[in-house]
Design goal:
Number of helices: 3
Low-confidence stretches: none
CATH class of the largest domain: Alpha Beta
Radius of gyration: 34 Å
Strand content: 5-15%
Mean pLDDT: 81
CATH architecture of the largest domain: 2-Layer Sandwich
Shape: elongated
Strand order of the largest sheet: 5-6-7
Order of helices and strands: HEEHHEEEEE
Number of domains: 2
Number of strands: 7
Length: 198
């Protein structure tokens, strides 16, 4: 007994007829061509492994720390240029306040410049540490100065005062005025006037 109605073979013939155009015959699309679920899972797994190893290798957290440490070094270099300009004007470096900030008063008295404020005409904005839990330290005796920062990477940075990332030898007492609000915020990087070392 022959089946009547619309069968699968009829469907394929309709599809083939749909591809006939202007007297030319276009091949019918092949049905059932694609990826299996297993193939897709294998590709996704391999891509996941590649992405995971890339994140592990690049370590974005350490890259962010490194970029903030570079900013700290650039900030201290900028402050150094401003201090040298001040020295050229007055024949001395500004004193430090009791909080180890730069004293902007060139006469009598102590008036500290907050990090992030203007210290005109020497620098438009006195840089401040890029993170809220750390700060810069300035120490001066009028003929020498030392500037300190806390590098997040500590001893991993080749410019740190000590290879283990410990506090610099000449830094002010860190128990009272640390470069940071935590034990990790030690003054482990410093710059100074040309006649002393940090």
């Amino acid at each position: 007994m022959k089946k009547r109605g619309f069968t699968q073979h009829h469907f394929y013939n309709v599809i083939r007829l749909c591809f006939i155009k202007n007297g030319g015959v276009y091949p019918a699309p092949e049905l059932g061509v694609g990826f299996t679920l297993i193939e897709l899972l294998v590709v996704i797994g391999v891509l996941g492994i590649i992405m995971g190893s890339a994140v592990f290798t690049l370590n974005p957290f350490e890259q962010l720390q490194k970029s903030r440490d570079v900013q700290r070094k650039n900030d201290l270099a900028q402050i150094q240029r401003a201090l040298e300009t001040f020295y050229n004007d007055f024949g001395r470096y500004p004193e430090n306040t009791s909080e180890y900030k730069i004293d902007k008063d060139t006469t009598v008295g102590v008036s500290g410049v907050n990090w992030g404020d203007s210290w005109a005409p020497y620098i438009t904005t006195l840089p401040k540490d890029p993170t809220s839990g750390r700060r810069y330290i300035y120490s001066s005796d009028s003929q020498t100065y030392r500037l300190y920062a806390s590098l997040e990477r500590g001893g991993k940075d080749s410019n740190a005062c000590k290879p283990d990332g410990a506090v610099c030898d000449n830094a002010p007492p860190t128990a009272t005025f640390p470069c940071g609000s935590t034990a990790n915020g030690v003054c482990n990087y410093g710059v100074s006037s040309p006649n002393v070392s940090p």
